Give the backbone structure.
Amino acid sequence: MSLDTNQLLLAHGNEILLLVEPASLAILSANAAATRHLGYAQEALLKMQVTDIECALSDVFYWEDARNGIAPELHDAEASYLKADGEVLQATKTVVRATPDSTLLVVCALPVGKLQRTEKELADLSARLRATLEATADGILVEDRSGAILNMNRRFSELWQIPEDLLLAHDDAAIFEFMAGRMRDPEAYRARIDEIRPYDDIETVDTLMLANGGVLERKSRPARHGNLIIGRVFSFTDITERKANESRLKLAASVFTHAHEGIIITDTRSCIVEVNNTFSRITGYSREEVLGQNVRLLKSGRQDSAFYTNLWRDLVKLGHWHGEVWNRRRDGTLYAEKLSIAAVKNVDGESRHYVALFSDITELKEHQHQLERMAHYDALTGIPNRVLLADRLEQAIAQSQRRKRNLAVVYLDLDGFKEVNDLHGHETGDLLLIAIAQRLRDTLREGDTLARLGGDEFVAVLTDLGEQEEWTGILARMQQAAATPVKIRQHTLQLSASLGVTLYPQNGSDADTLLRHADQAMYQAKQAGKNRYHLFDPERDRQTQTHLETRRQIAQGLVRSEFVLFYQPKVNMRSGEIAGAEALIRWQHPERGLISPGEFLPLIEDDELIVRIGDWVMDTALRQMSEWRSQGLSLPVSVNIAALHLQQEDFLQRLQAKLETHADVPADNLELEVVETAALEGVSRISRLIEDCRSLGVRFSLDDFGTGYSSLTYLRRLPASVLKIDQSFVRDMLWDSEDMAIVEGVIGLAAAFRRTVIGEGVETAEHGELLLRLGCDLAQGYGIARPMPANDIPAWAATWKPEPSWSACRNLAATRDDLPLTYAEVELRHWVKCVESCFVASSVATVADLCEYRFGQWYHGDGQTHYGRLPAFAALGPLHASMHALGLELTELWANGQTELARGRLSELHALRDEVTRHLHALQEECIEARQVLRFPLF
């Protein structure tokens, strides 16, 4: 292009051109378009700075950057120019360098013309349209003739809950598919959409059921430009609440017609204006018969005028009333109804109608009466039950407080009733209870109460009592009534009663306390032998409370793992083998330290807690046996089982489960110890249980044998494999011939019944030696080992050795022929203890006693007769004489007040005793050898 052409464009072009020096911002040159658009003369522009005419704040910022040399090489922006007439000219501008190596800047600005104003007007129109769409309460969707979305408002996206990311994607197909997915029946929706074509000249109305329960009404109509259809407009209205209201109205109408309650609508004058079907069914009146009638036609006459006065007062004041009313049916019969009345008011708060709802509760009232009778009276005997007793007792206490008189609570339990039930059946037992209850009630005075708590337990409340003779006389009559024979069918039955008595206010301040005290007193009457009464003892109650607290602590201790097992070894004294160990529970109390079982087990022996303790002991013992086996120590363990634990119906199943849990422990390594007295209480059941346990491999032993007075029949019926001689007999058998006789008898019984026998309480080597001579090889006791923690058992087992004195007894086969010598040894020890007793207490033995002691009688009598021919017997003579003389000498010293001198010489007496004992043992060995070798009878 030529220079003339360029100048022509500069002169006649429409674009403003300015040449600017950036350091001073001075306008160095301007074209004709600049003077034409801005209205300034050429000379005026060349005297200005560019910031004099560019008035936008963004322009000023740019030129400040240009002055500082930090403006960009190319700058495009919107600009505002201040014209000479004061108006502002809007333009778009570009600022560039004049030449690459020049610092001058060229501003090229193009004024904004009519197109922009048109666009602005269109934008304003679009904004008004958008505002109109957003202002409407309906959701609006606009489609073109092809079905593409042209516009939608926010309400539309809210109604359909269209995610924002889906709206921003502008994917019409995805939006339509999302809408179909919101429908309860998407396929039907899609089919209907296909039927509504955007270019059809039709208007549609549809109800849309959404999957979430909502309901929309959709309307559509064609959008026109002149006569041309250019698309379709859809509007969506949420009619969920409207539909719900319509449903509720239909439901209300249905409820009124078909409600199970009778409904009456009256005007303010109580005239009936409407009733439902149930009203007619209950009252017998048809709708036509009662419309316009006053509700008084239903009155029964059982409520007085005051009742209706109060009803109307509440109805006017509160706007509602509810209660129970007796009314009359059409046929004249009365019925009870549960009635609720509410006032229907207008907008001014004035009552216009009353609505009454009622239901027939006649049968309910009859059942209520029966239930009240059942709730307060015993179904079998007809006398008050526990509930009514509580109410009567509270009333009696209040009456006693007012009158300052005593009352007594008597807790009665029949003796032997269970046996009657078991022998003659429950029906006979029930008839017996009825008869006795009637007799007991007849013994009481008017104002007294007799109640049955259940089973064969009764409680009597004796009120308004004076002297003791008054209530003791009533107790005597009650006992006589319970003990009088009763003939039921072909049986004449007779029982007795144990009564517990407590007095108010002496022994309690409330009903629960009095009943508890009477129950405790009744239990004491049972313990004392039955067929008597026992007056409550407060001191015993305090002990009971202490026991209850201890039981609570025991239960907490079990939860907190405060219990531990100690193990006391059992040994075979003859062979020197370790036969096993007995698991003994200890309580590691956080405050009292280690507590022995004798301090806490007796308190829970009749409580279910003893079962939990027993289960814990078995689990712990089996777990410990398993641990020992892993260490190479196979040690059988016996555990003690309480009577209540054995009586549990599922005892065998629980035991089997524990054995299966510890399958590595052989079942025959577990032995269950049962005290003899517990076994004898239910010998038949215990016998079956022992057999069942033996089938699992578990062994049983009878503990404390000899204390239960078992007969040979019981012993034969109890298949326990081990008898444990009670330690009280073993401990004293060294010097008590009667205890020694019991021990010898138990050993003989065990041999006769082929049972293993073990002696408890072996505290010294002498105890073990005597047991061996009597034929008992197994033993346990402090003389062998004290109970110890499980971790100490392996070390003890590795180092234990039997007493040397037991070795001499290993090869001796004693027989009953040798028992006289054993008894002689016991009598010898008894005589020495008698001498010792003189120096430790008041006089126990006299010189005459010592002269007539049994050992001397035996030595000069049966001993001389049976053993006099043996050499060992001859050696006993001098020793016996010396010991006897020393004993007399010591007692004389004591009698003369020389106690300390006598005590100092006791060691001489002990030495002689031991020497005589050794000779007795030698004599026994000589007898045994004589029988074995010479084969001749000694006598």
